[in-house]
C-alpha cells in the first residue's frame, strides 16, 4: 500500500527553506548562511524590534563543526548555540513549520509527518476498511484514468501504457465502500429516464419503451443545454451503435476563465486519449448490450489534462459547470443522472472486476507487468501474484457478497485462497514463502529470495479475516489466517528498529542494510497492528503498536 505524501513533504520542505531563508536574512544581514566568517562578539542586527529585539540580544556567529566532516554557520548566545532548522530538518529528518493562531506565532516541531488513526471499536469486516474513507485513489498520479470499459483505475506505476493492478483496484473499491458508510447522503437528480422524467433535448430524438433513442445519421445534432453545477458524478445506461462513430459528450466550462472542454465517451478499446480540448474515454460497445457508466466528470477531465501534461494541480469542482450534453451517431439512453456521489456503483465495479479477471485455475489475479528486482533480487516476471492483491481482492469480494447476497462473489473470494497454499517460488501460482524454511509468510512481492514485506502481509491477513467471518464455508480462510497470525507474532519484533520499523526483512534474506519504513509506511504498520489488536488480545500486538506509535513522537527504545 502506498500513501501519497510526497507532496505534503515537499510543501513542508519548501516552507522550511523559506522560513530559514527569511530568518537568516533578518538575523544575518548581508551574511550568506554558508559563509565561513569567523567573528567574535559581533551583534547581529535584524529589522528594528520586529523579532523581539534581535538587536542587542547578544547573538553572535559561530561555526558548527559537524562530526569533524564539514561546518555550518550557527548562532551563539552565551553558552547556548542555535543551529539552523533547515540543517536539523535534513540531518535528523524531522519536520517543523511556523504556525500562527490564538494571536501569536510559534514554531511547531514534529518528529514524523504521518498520522495514527486509533480504532473506535472492534474491527467490523462489514464496516469501513481501516481509514480508507480518506483515500482518493483516482486522483493518485500513478492512476492513468478510470477505465470507462471496466469502471476501475488503470495504473501506470511500472508501465506507461497502463495496466490493471489488483491492489489499486481493490483500494479504489474499498475507499468507495468506506465513503458510502461515512459520508453524508448524496444529492441526486435524474435528467432523463425515457418516460417519467424527460429533458428538453434539441434535435431528433424519440422515446420508446421507456428509453431515449437517437440517430444523427442525417447530419443533425442532438444537444441538451444545461447549467448544472456542483454535482459531477454522472451515471447513465447507454447502448451506443459501434459502427456509427457514436458518442456521448459532456461540455464542461470553467466558469471563471470561460474555457471549454469536451469530455467524450466513445466506443474504443483505448482507455484514454486527448487532443487539446477534446478528451476521449473508451468504453465497451456491443450491439444489444447496455453499458452502465458511473463517471466522476471532474476526475475524467483532470486525467485528460494530465495525460497531455497540462496543469497537474487539483481542479476545483466549484469552478466548473456542465454547459451542455451532446449525442452523436446512434444508440439508446436511459437513467441519465447527476449526483454529488455514487460510491456503491464504483465499489461494485471493482468487485465485478475481481470476478471477471480471476484466473480460473489458480484463483489468482495475475499482474501483467514485470517488476524490477532491487539489490540482487530477481525481477518479478509478468503474471506474478501478490498476497496483498489476493487479500485486498478478498476484502472487496467479502463485502460485495455481504451487501448483495450474490454467491458469485463468495465463490470468487474462496477461490482466491488457492495461491496461499502454493510456494511463492512458483511464479503466477503461489504467494507463500517460509521464514527459515518453516514460518509461512504471505508475500506482497513473491521475490527470490523472499522479501517478507510487513504491510502487504498484514493486509492479506485482514482479507482472510474478512472472509472467515462470513461463516462455515470459509474454514480454509480461518486456517490460513491463524497460521499467518502465528508467524506474525513470532516475527513482528524483527521489524522493530528501536526508533521506527523496517519495511521488510531484506537485510535478513539478502544480507544488506535494513530497508527502513518511511513514516507513512511506519504509520500504516501501527494502524494495522491497532486493528489486529481489536480482534486478538495477544499483548504483543497492542504493546508493539503503542511503542511504535511513540517512535513517531521521537521516543526511542532505551540503550544499555
Ligand atoms: C450508501 O449506499 C446506500 C445503498 O445504495 C445508499 O442508499 C446511500 O445513499 C449511500 N450513501 C452514501 C453516502 O453514499
Ligand atoms: C439511423 O438512421 C438511418 C437513416 O437515416 C438508418 O439507416 C439507420 O439504420 C438508423 N440507425 C439506427 C440504429 O436506427
Ligand atoms: C467515423 O469517423 C471517422 C473519422 O472522423 C471517419 O473517417 C469515418 O467516416 C466515420 N464513420 C462513420 C460511419 O461515420
Ligand atoms: C433504468 O433504471 C430502472 C430503474 O432502476 C431499471 O429498471 C432499468 O432497467 C434501467 N434501464 C436500463 C437500460 O438499464
UniProtKB/TrEMBL annotation:
It is a single-pass membrane protein; Single-pass type II membrane protein. Residues 36-58 are annotated as: Disordered. Pathway: Glycan metabolism; heparin biosynthesis; Glycan metabolism; heparan sulfate biosynthesis. Keywords: Isomerase, Membrane, Signal-anchor, Transmembrane, Transmembrane helix. InterPro entries: 6-hairpin_glycosidase_sf, C5-epim_C, C5-epimerase, Glce_b_sandwich. It catalyses: [heparosan-N-sulfate](n) = [heparan-N-sulfate](n). It is found in: Endomembrane system; Membrane. Its EC number is 5.1.3.17. One of its GO terms (molecular function) is heparosan-N-sulfate-glucuronate 5-epimerase activity. Residues 358-549 form the D-glucuronyl C5-epimerase C-terminal domain. Belongs to the D-glucuronyl C5-epimerase family. This is heparosan-N-sulfate-glucuronate 5-epimerase. It comes from Ranatra chinensis.
